[in-house]
Design brief:
The chain has 2 domains: 5-146, Ribonuclease iii, N-terminal Endonuclease Domain, Chain A, CATH 1.10.1520; 154-226, Double Stranded RNA Binding Domain, CATH 3.30.160. The protein has helices spanning 5-12, 19-25, 38-59, 65-76, 78-87, 98-102, 109-127, 129-140, 143-146, 154-164, 205-226, and strands at residues 171-178, 185-191, 198-202. The chain contains 11 helices and 3 strands. The protein has a 3-stranded antiparallel β-sheet with strand order 1-2-3, covered by helices on one side. Strand 1 and strand 2 form a beta hairpin.
């Protein structure tokens, strides 16, 4: 699959002078290409940490070091990066081997987080600190002001939601498992008493349960907002 450069640049709000950097930032090691994103990810991790620390230092002038550190950890940890990457559809552009793609690599939160970092590392090299800072602040958006603790695992959040309402624990049931051993497809049904069930598919039981829980939470919050 060739990389739709203009589409990726529109999503991240940055146009590369050297598109080889963009290609490298989106190339997973499973392709066998030594020119993959791993070194850019290393750099991007440090760039994100500095930009977010700088933003928090300026935004929360009266907050102590401990408070700033908690906010910083929440904003730069892998689950936050994965959520940001998925929200902007960046996982759709990652270049995988066919085996890794079939195994669900584009839905792997660790890989998505890595690619967000590698893209930002590439922007830093291509355009410098000021431009990558603009991109990071735009992608993170209101999270910089509102996110005080790390995003909770969706299964834990859903369980706590049910317990707070004195409901039985959510039930995850494997409806089917298909595909070859190296690229299985799990179909999971998630049930919460009093609400319609949700069915989701994914490359692993754990990952599919998490995505189903996330969808259920979104549905429950949407129904509450509309009531």
């Amino acid at each position: 699959m060739s990389i739709p450069y203009e589409k990726v640049e529109k999503v991240i709000g940055y146009q590369f002078k050297d598109r080889h950097l963009l290609e490298r930032a989106l190339t997973h090691s499973s392709t066998g290409d030594e020119y993959n994103y791993q070194r850019l990810e290393f750099l991007g991790d440090r760039v994100v940490g500095l930009v977010i620390a700088d933003a928090l230092f300026k935004k929360f002038r009266s907050e102590n070091e401990g408070g700033l550190a908690k906010r910083h950890t929440a904003l730069i940890q892998g689950s936050t990066l994965a959520i940001i990457g998925q929200a902007h559809g960046l996982n759709d552009f990652i270049q995988f081997s066919e085996a890794e793609k079939s195994a669900g690599g584009s839905q792997n939160e660790n890989i998505i987080a890595d690619v967000v970092e590698s893209l930002l590392g590439a922007i830093f090299i291509d355009g410098g600190y000021d431009l990558v800072q603009e991109v990071i602040l735009r992608l993170w958006g209101d999270n910089i002001e509102t996110l005080k603790q790390a995003p909770q695992d969706p299964k834990t959040e859903l369980q706590e939601w049910a317990q707070a309402r004195q409901l039985p624990l959510p039930v995850y049931e494997i409806i089917s498992k298909s595909g070859p051993d190296h690229a299985p497809v799990f179909t999971i049904q998630l049930s919460v008493e009093g609400f319609d069930s949700i069915t989701d598919e994914g490359p692993s039981r754990r990952q599919t349960e998490k995505t189903a829980a996330r969808k259920m939470l979104k549905k429950l919050k949407s129904e509450k907002a509309g009531s």
